[in-house]
Design brief:
Histidine kinase, alpha+beta, 9 strands, membrane, DUF5931, Heat Shock Protein 90, 2 domains, kinase, 382 residues
């Protein structure tokens, strides 16, 4: 029955208590013109209380047909007050149904929220005012406390029920995400102990043997990188409660933003390792394009100056006010004065394709080089 279960049980208790209250009023009031008819109406209310209590407890039966029947039957019992009490009733006389007519208003609120509760309250209020008008009372002098309470009950209960359903959906999503994470970790352990180690071994031995084996090793390394990225990102549950068993890709950046991590992960290969935050790194599409091009140019320099088998690492860090992208390689480093010499000779790969792109985004570039390799740090504000 879910989170709605306590609401339906509370409505059942309210129906039974209101039925008892109506019976006490009928016993105490000796001025009814047709008391026998009043007891017949009370019997109908008792039968419907039992039937509605059972019907609302079965999820398959809960729906608009049951809610409509509940509302119409309650309104009919309310309108029977015209005949039961007779002409001697006053404007302040409690209808024969007493508070029992509020039950369908509560049911509509639980099932369809504030609007449903308000519609049911409006129907019952119109029936009550029509009843008092038929009995000849001046509607301007008729108390409207009952109608106000019905509206308050329907809207408040509907709002609370809707909040409870949303809380249940969020809890279900949290459970699904936790379960998906545990399953992903279990699969990652198994894959790491078998497939990834084999691919790494093939890559290493292929590079040692050379020739065609080196090509097989390179392909194995590329597949290892792809598989590691697949394990890292993994699927996440759909946010829709109706699709609990479907899985969709991880959370995306806003529509007017692009995810820098997604753009840079395509550079991952046997020689290039890409590390990005688990959550998206949203930047403007232009910023993502420029940074991606700058990183691509840095990797081109690694291959051109360090060889095809040189290793490179791309690290993306997201700070509160800026994004830092670092490209590091294990090459011999850049000789002192080489960048200035290249710029003077018209080779503008670093000065324009990297520094120029980042400067246009309002960022800065820091290059550190030694015999152990070169590190290019690109910092761009959000």
């Amino acid at each position: 029955m879910g989170i709605e279960g306590p609401f339906w049980r509370a409505i059942a208790v309210f129906r039974i208590a209101s039925l008892g209250y109506a019976a006490i009023l009928l016993l105490q009031s000796g001025g009814y013109a047709h008391p026998v008819t009043g007891w017949i109406v009370l019997g109908v209310m008792a039968v419907w209380t039992a039937a509605a209590t059972y019907a609302y407890s079965v999820e398959a039966l809960r729906g608009w047909p049951l809610l409509t029947l509940d509302l119409l039957l309650s309104a009919a019992c309310l309108l029977s007050t015209v005949y039961v009490q007779g002409p001697q009733a006053t404007a302040n006389t409690m209808p024969v149904t007493a508070t029992w007519v509020a039950a369908p208003v509560l049911a509509w609120g639980v099932y369809s929220g504030r609007r449903g509760g308000g519609v049911a309250a409006a129907v019952m209020s119109v029936a009550d005012l029509w009843l008092r008008g038929v009995r000849g009372f001046d509607l301007a002098a008729v108390p409207v406390n009952g109608a106000v309470l019905l509206f308050l009950a329907g809207i408040v209960i509907g709002h609370v029920a809707r909040l409870a359903k949303q809380a249940e959906e969020r809890m279900q999503r949290a459970i699904e995400i936790e379960a998906a994470g545990r399953e992903r970790e279990r699969l990652a352990r198994g894959i790491h102990d078998s497939v990834l180690q084999v691919l790494a071994l093939v890559q290493r031995r292929g590079a040692e043997i050379g020739g065609e084996a080196a090509d097989l090793g390179r392909l194995a390394g590329e597949q290892e990188a792809v598989l590691r990225e697949l394990i890292r990102s993994g699927p996440r549950p759909d946010r829709s409660l109706r699709s609990r068993r479907r899985f969709v890709p991880a959370r995306r950046a806003p529509a007017d933003r692009a995810d820098l991590g997604d753009a840079l992960r395509r550079y991952g290969s046997a020689q290039v390792t890409v590390a990005t935050p688990a959550d998206p790194v949203p930047l403007s599409p232009r910023a993502v394009d420029e940074l991606t091009a700058a990183v691509g140019n840095a990797l081109d320099n690694v291959r051109r100056h360090c060889g095809e088998h040189a290793r490179a690492w791309i690290l993306v860090e997201s700070e509160p006010d800026r994004v830092i992208v670092t490209v590091r390689d294990d090459g011999p480093g850049i000789p002192e004065g080489r960048l200035a010499e290249a710029a003077a000779d018209g080779r503008l790969g670093v000065s324009q394709s990297i520094r120029g792109r980042v400067a246009d985004l309002g960022g800065s570039v820091t290059i550190l080089s030694s015999s152990d390799g070169t590190e290019i740090e690109m910092s761009v504000p959000f």
